[in-house]
């Protein structure tokens, strides 16, 4: 068995390639082109404004993902100093106990009580050390989840824009009511509108994947997976409408 399989940290060789990582600049360029395409076909539309806001959010998400990749050295330094002080205090206390300890059968109950208190204190100190060592991870997680929450909101906004784009209205010539939304798109325009919504959702998932690429926090990875599943589910509904339009046109 290869040593690199058992100990992957010994293998420092990386395979260079253009397609092993997501390139944020290409994602941002695609979003800009999509905004232009929406503006050319549906000028001053709500979907164009949503795409413009999404473009700004994607740029901020890219910057945040870049900042979360390297270690936060000030936080690490403070955490290590605090951990060192706690460990030093524990060692000093143990040395003092060892220096002044004398065994006396009469003081066994007091010794047991003191040992129980010392164990409780060591548990609390261990929790404090664990909390300090995870401080950097929690700070990065909070920043990433904040951006992912905004991306999730954008996905729901895109879904709201396609919600009233019902192909049945074009195919069956349903009579509008007083409360019916305004529907003035042709079949081709409706197909393009729905396709733009699907592209927005796909790009939303790709922007979220930048955090999965730059971080190894399981909470962040879970949030990214949930957002990707949300985008896939919403896009599937859109493609059902597109397929209805395509099949009706063939008939």
Mean pLDDT: 80
The overall number of domains is 2
**Terminal Cα separation, in Å?**
60 Å
**What is Rg?**
29 Å
What is the class of the largest domain in the CATH system? Mainly Alpha
Q: How many helical elements?
A: 9
The CATH architecture classification of the largest domain is Up-down Bundle
Structural class category: mainly alpha
> What summary fits the major beta sheet?
none
- Helix and strand succession? HHHHHHHHH
Question: Which spans have pLDDT < 50 for at least 5 consecutive residues?
Answer: none
Strand content: under 5%
Helix content: over 70%
Overall shape? elongated
Write down how many β-strands occur, each being a DSSP E stretch of 2 or more residues: 0
Per CATH, what is the topology of the largest domain?
Glutathione S-transferase Yfyf (Class Pi), Chain A, domain 2
Layout: helices, strands, pairs:
Elements: H1 3-6, H2 24-41, H3 46-68, H4 73-100, H5 108-133, H6 135-163, H7 167-172, H8 187-214, H9 218-250
Helix pairs in contact: 2-3, 2-8, 3-6, 3-8, 4-5, 6-8, 6-9, 8-9
Task: Please tell me about this protein's structure.
The chain has helices at 3-6, 24-41, 46-68, 73-100, 108-133, 135-163, 167-172, 187-214, 218-250. With 251 residues, the chain is mainly alpha-helical. The chain has two domains: 23-70 and 138-172 and 183-250, Glutathione S-transferase Yfyf (Class Pi), Chain A, domain 2; 73-133. Helix 3 packs antiparallel against helix 6, helix 4 (73-100) packs antiparallel against helix 5 and helix 6 (135-163) packs parallel to helix 9. The longest helix has 33 residues, at 218-250.
């Amino acid at each position: 068995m290869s040593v690199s399989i058992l100990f992957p940290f010994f293998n420092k060789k990386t395979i260079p390639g253009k397609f092993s990582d997501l390139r944020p600049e290409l994602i941002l360029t695609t979003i800009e082109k999509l905004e232009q395409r929406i503006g050319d076909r549906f000028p001053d539309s709500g979907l164009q404004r949503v795409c413009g806001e999404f473009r700004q959010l994607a740029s901020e998400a890219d910057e945040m993902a870049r900042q979360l990749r390297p270690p936060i050295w000030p936080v690490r330094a403070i955490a290590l100093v605090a951990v060192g002080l706690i460990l030093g205090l524990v060692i000093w206390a143990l040395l003092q106990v060892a220096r002044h300890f004398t065994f006396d059968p009469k003081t066994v109950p007091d010794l047991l009580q003191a040992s129980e208190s010392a164990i409780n204190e060591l548990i609390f100190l261990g929790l404090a050390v664990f909390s300090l060592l995870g401080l950097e991870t929690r700070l990065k997680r909070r920043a990433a989840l904040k951006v992912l929450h905004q991306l999730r909101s954008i996905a729901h906004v895109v879904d709201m824009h396609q919600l009233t784009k019902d192909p049945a209205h074009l195919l069956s010539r349903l009579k509008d009511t007083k409360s019916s939304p305004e529907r003035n798109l042709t079949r081709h325009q409706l197909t393009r509108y729905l396709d733009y919504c699907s592209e927005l959702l796909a790009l939303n998932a790709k922007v979220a994947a930048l955090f999965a690429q730059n971080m190894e926090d399981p909470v962040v990875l879970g949030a990214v997976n949930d957002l990707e599943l949300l985008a896939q589910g919403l896009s599937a509904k859109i493609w059902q409408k597109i397929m209805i339009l395509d099949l009706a046109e063939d008939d």
